[in-house]
Amino acid sequence: MDNRRHIHHTARHFGFSYPTSPWQRAHAAFAPLFAVILLFIVLRLLSIFPIVPGQVSFGTIGQALFATLFRLIIAYLLALVCAVPLALLVNKSPLMERVLLPVYDIAQSIPVLAFFPVVIAFFIRFGEIQGAAVFIIFLSMLWNIVFSLVGGLKVIPTDIKDAARVFGIRGKDFLGRILIPATVPYLVTGSLLAWAQGWNIIIVAEVLHTYIPGGTAAQDVFGIGSIMVNAASSGSNTAFIAAILIMVGAIALLNFFVWQKLLRFAERFKFE
């Protein structure tokens, strides 16, 4: 019985599973883009209908949603860029693992909001209030990706590593042929957790005036989180409910058209 481990490339029946027809390829490639465009069109059409006369419209909430999504994307990309080298450092040697893993664990355990007043004060000093929101989201995302990647690097079979050494696969080749494919499932899982954590923190990250002495709602950053909080505080219940429904709809679309497909795609790279 052949018990050699290999990277799993079995075709699937859904998502990114080796689409055969031109329609399947187009669907796999462009479905997320179509979903975003459709959502934008719907929100633009709804902008003519005010939720509360003279206050917040569906169009305003739609613009706030896209501002929040852009903020989340920037924070996620920063977290990804920082997480990869941090995870690779742990994998470099047993000594680095013994030293860095406890440090990472302590850093992860510190509540993100403990940094927020200091972060806001720092960015306000340089006139970059948007940076404070992005940075706090970045901190909330970072460790989910780091620990997922560390776990992925740890489960690479020893015989795969030994075979790479025998065939002289080192440096960039080892990174591209072994490490990156092996960690794809863990990167996707960690990214999904990080993205969920970003949504959890978005209300706090956008409502900055509560952390600024004598702050007002005018100092909040524009986004779906600040729209919800300010609508609730002003008694605009209809606007608050509409913002929640639009946010939930956006999360559902992203989950179905992006994350579920990425999870299925990542199944190809699991060792068996």
CATH architecture: Orthogonal Bundle
* Percent range for β-strand residues: under 5%
CATH homologous superfamily (4th level) name:
MetI-like
The mean pLDDT is 78
Question: Could you say what the CATH topology is called?
Answer: MetI-like fold
Q: Cα-atom Rg, whole angstroms?
A: 22 Å
Percent in helix: over 70%
How far do the termini sit from each other? 14 Å
Structure report:
The protein is mainly α and 272 residues long. It has one domain (23-47, 57-269): MetI-like fold. Helices cover 72% and strands 0% of the residues. It has nine helices and no strands. Helix 2 (58-92) packs parallel to helix 9 (237-266), helix 7 (171-206) runs parallel beside helix 8 and helix 8 packs antiparallel against helix 9 (237-266). The longest helix has 36 residues, at 171-206. The radius of gyration is 22 Å and the shape is globular. The chain starts with 21 loop residues before the first helix and ends in a 6-residue tail after the last helix. The model is unreliable at 1-20 and 46-54 (pLDDT under 50).
Keywords:
272 residues; mainly alpha; MetI-like fold; 9 helices; disordered N terminus
Q: What's the arrangement of secondary structure elements?
A:
Elements: H1 22-46, H2 58-92, H3 94-109, H4 116-125, H5 129-154, H6 158-166, H7 171-206, H8 224-233, H9 237-266
Helix pairs in contact: 1-2, 1-9, 2-3, 2-5, 2-7, 2-9, 4-5, 5-7, 7-8, 7-9, 8-9
Précis, in short:
With about 270 residues, this protein is an all-alpha fold.
